[in-house]
C-alpha cells in the first residue's frame, strides 16, 4: 500500500494528511473540532475527503484520545469528546469509502516516532508524551503493544503518590499530576506566589500575577535564567525521571522517547530528566541503561503514525 | 522435543526435575544451594545429571533470581548469589552436554503458570509473585516479554512511595517493601507492638514477642480471626491491589495471576486485594476489568516453566 | 465579672448567648450570617443586644474562623467571610458599648472544653476539631497558647502528605484533607464508586449515587454496619490517630479532646482513632500516654469559651 | 545565684563547665563517655568536681539526650545510653553535694540560645537542631515548654512521609530521616552513586567511594561548588523548610533558631531553608512571617543552657 491518510483529533482542531511510505506528509488540512460527537464524525469525513480527493490514498488511520477497543474500531471512552462506545471506524468508513483503523492518539504518536522519528534503530521503545497530561505508547519487539482491551500504556495514571493530588480520572496521585505541562504551571505558580522576587522575569511575561502564568511563560523565563522557572522545570524533571526509572523496571526498553510540549525545550528539560532517571534506576550498575531521547516529529507524530498503522492494516 | 529438565535455584536449595509436554514433573531431586558461585554451577550440573541420567531429556531450562541478559545465557547480577556477569549457560552446557536456557526465575514461574496453571485461556497475563520480595512476569500475545536487556518485569522495584522505605536494591519506596511477605511481617510486628491486646493469638503462636512473629504466624492467626493479623493482611492487600491497578494502566492484561507465599491463603488475601484493585483501577467504568486469579502451581511453577522454555528453545 | 456574652460566627448563622461563671448558657439567639463584612458586624451587634438587653452582661467574646491578631482585636484573614484586617473588636465595641475580645473560633472552643467540658483535671490539653476542616486549640499550663502573632494551633494545615491533595489554603497534603468530615465523604464516595455492592445501605440513604453521599449518610450507614461506611471511618481514623501521635511528639499533652461533627459518633470513631494513635505514638513504651477524650459541649463550646475568655479579659 | 555548672552528655564525650550569669563559660573540662550507665554517672560527677572544685558554683544542670520526666530528675529513656528510668538527679546529687536539674539536651540548648544566643528579643522561639538527628526546644512567652510528661518538642519524630523511611524510634517517615545530617549524607551517597561524574570534588574528599562520604565532606564539597553536594543540601533544605512551615502552623513563633552541624554552613544552608519555608508557609500573605535565624552558640548551647536552668532552679 502506498499512500494513506492520517487523522489526529485534538481538543480544538482535527488535522488530516496524506502520508507516504517514508512518513512524509504530502498534503494536509485542518478543521475546528466540533462540540458534538456527530459533528466530529462529519468533520473527520470532511477533512479526509479534502486531502484525499486528488490522491491515491487507500486507507485511513485515526488517532483519538481515549480508550479504543481491541478491534481498533470503537472508542470506549474519551476524556474530551462525549463519546461512549462510539463506533468510529464504521461511521467514518461509511462516509469515506476506505478502510479505517482507530487508535489511541498516544499510541499512534508512539508508532510514528518509532517508525520515522527518534526510534530509528530501536525495537523496544517506550514513548512518553509530556503534554497537558501524560500519554504513552509501548513498542516491543517492533510491534505496538495495545493490551488485551486496547488500553495499555496509560502511563499518566500510574499512582506515584499515595493519597496524592486528585486527578480528573477519579484517582489520586497520578503521574500526570506531577510530570505534565499542567504540573509545571502549578509548580511555577506556587513558587512565584511564595517568592515573587525570584520570579521577576516569569511574572513579567504574564499579567504580573502568579495565576496568570502559562506554560509558555515558564519555558521562556527558564531560557532567560529565571530562578523560579528553572526550579519548576527541575521539579518536573525529578518526577519525570523517577517515572522513567519505574518504566525501565517494568518494560526494560532500549530507549525512551520523550515528546509533548514540555519536551520542546530539549536538553534544557531532558538533561535533568536523565539525571533523575539515573538516580532512581534500579540496578543501574548491573544493566545497560536505556537512552532518553527527544521526540523528533513534534505534533506530526500522531498523524504520521496513524497513517502508517492504516497502511499496515 | 519431548522431555526437558527444569532447574529452580533458590536461596537454600536447588531443585531439578524432568518435565513432559503437559507440564507434569516425572522425576525430581533437590540439593542444598552451595555458598560459592562455582559451587552453584557444580550443584546444578549434579542435579541435572541425577534426574536426567535415565531419561530422554533433551534440554535444560534454569530459573535464577537476578538479571539475565537478552541471550538468556549470562546472569548479569543476582541478589542472593555472588554472581556478576556469570556465563551460566556456557558453564552448565559444558558440564551436562545439553542445550541450556537461563531465565529470570520469576519469568520462568510466570511462563509455567501461563502454560500449565492459572493462565489457561489468557494470552495477556501479568504474573505477580508476592514472596519475601515481589517478582513478576509478563506474557503478552502469548509470548514471554523479557525487555531489551532481559530485565523487564521487575515489578517489585517500582517506586510506590516517594521518599519511602529503603530497599535492598538501593532505591526507596519500592513496591516490595509494602506488598511482600516481608512487609506483612513488618505490619504485624508494628501493630502487635502498639496494641498487643489485639494480637493475643498472633503473639501466642510465636515466642510471645513482636520480634518473634514470622509470616506463617500471621497467616495462622488471621485464619483464627486475630485482629492484628487480619489488619496486617488488609494493609498488605491495600498496597497489592493498588499496585495491580497501576499494572493494569500500563499493561492492560486480561488476567493477573498472583502467586507467592502471601497468596497461599487464597481468597482470604485475594478478596481484599481485588477490592483494593477495583478501588484504584483507573477508568473502571469504561473498560473490561482484568481478573485477579490465584496461582495454581505453587513453587513448582518456576521449574515447570523453565523446562518448558528450554523445550521452546 | 459575672455574666458575659459569647458569640459564635458560623458560615450560615451567628449565635449569641449569655453565659454565667459555670459555663451555663442562660439565654441565646441566632441570626443568619449576612453575605457582606459590614452585614456581619451589624448582625453580631444585633444578636448581642438581643440577648444582652435584659441581662447584666459586662463583656463580649467573639469566636471567628480565621487568623486573629495578637491583640485579639483584628481578624487578619478569614476563610469564609471577606475580611482582610477587619477591626472587629473596635467596630463591635462601638455598637454594643461593652469591651469585646475576638478569638479564633477553634481557640474559643478549646477554651470552652478545657474550662467546662472534657478538659476537667487537665492543664495541658490539645483540642482538635474534626469538622468540615480541622481546627485546633492549645492549652498549656492552664493557659490558652495563641502564638506570637495569634495564629498558633492551625493543626489542619500541617502537611501530612508531601505532594498530597490540594488544600483551600494553597498548600498541599494538609491534615484536614485526610482527617476531616470532608475527607470522610470523599473516602465514602470513592469506595462506593468502586464497590457499590458493599455500599447498599449508604447509597440507599442518599440519592443512590456516590456523588449524593453526605457526611450524615456515612454516619448513619456506619451505625448500620455498611461496609463502605465503616471502612471510610476507619480510613479517617488512621489519619486522625497518626496526626494525634505527631501532636504528642510536639506538645506532649496529658489529654487530647476531639470534637467536631466527625466525633459525634463517639467511640465508633474514637476507638479506631485511639488504636491508630497508639500505633504511631513515638516512644510509646517509655512515656505516659495522653488520653484521647470526646468533646462534651458540642457546638456550644465556641460560644461558651468565647464568653469565658471575655470574662478573663 | 551566681555561678552554676552545666553538663552536656554527648555520645562520645561529656563536657562540664562553670557558667556565669551572662552565659560566659569560665572553666571547662571534658571526659570520654563511658559505655555503662553507672560509668556515665561517675564520669559526670568527676567532671563536675573537676571544674567546680575552685569555684563558687552552687548548682548543676545536666543536658541529656532522651525523655526526661516532668520533675526533671529521671531519664525515662535514652537513645544512646542504656538508661531506663535512670534517677540521674538523685545519683549525681549524692556524689557532688549540689542541687541538680536534669533536662533534655535539646531543651537545654534551646534555652541557652534563647537566653544568650540568637533568641535575643524574642519570647516565642522554636529551636531546631539539625544534627545527626533532629532535636528541638520550645520557648513560649519566655518560658521553656516541656509538656505534661517532660517530653514535648520531639520535632524529629513528627511523621512527614506516611509509609516513609524506618526510624530508630520504631516509627516511619520521621522528619529526622529527611532533614538531619544523616539524611544529608544519604542524599549525597545516593546521588554520587547515580552520577559520580557530578561528584568529583565530593568523592575526592572521601575514599573515592559513595559509601565513604561523610557529612564534613558534603559541606566542604558544597563550598567548592560540587554539584552533587549542592543538590544534597538543597534536598535537605526542602524538607527542613517544609517542616518549619508546619511548626509555624502549630506554634506561630516569632523566630526559629536553627542549630546543629548541618547549620554550621550558615546561609549556604539557611537561605534555601528560608525559601522552602516561605513556599510552604500556610497563609503566608495574611500573617507576619517568623524569622529563621542561625544559632550562635554552637555546641556550647546545651552546656550554657543547662547551667542557666540550674540557676533558675
From TrEMBL, chains A, B, C, D:
Keywords: ATP-binding, Kinase, Nucleotide-binding, Transferase. GO terms for molecular function: ATP binding; glucokinase activity. CDD domains: ASKHA_NBD_ROK_SgGLK-like (cd24061). The keyword DNA repair does not apply. GO terms for biological process: glycolytic process. Gene3D superfamilies: 3.30.420.40. Pfam families: ROK. InterPro entries: ATPase_NBD, ROK, ROK_cs, ROK_glcA. GO terms for cellular component: cytoplasm. Its EC number is 2.7.1.2. It comes from the Bacteria. PROSITE patterns: ROK. Belongs to the ROK (NagC/XylR) family. This is Glucokinase.
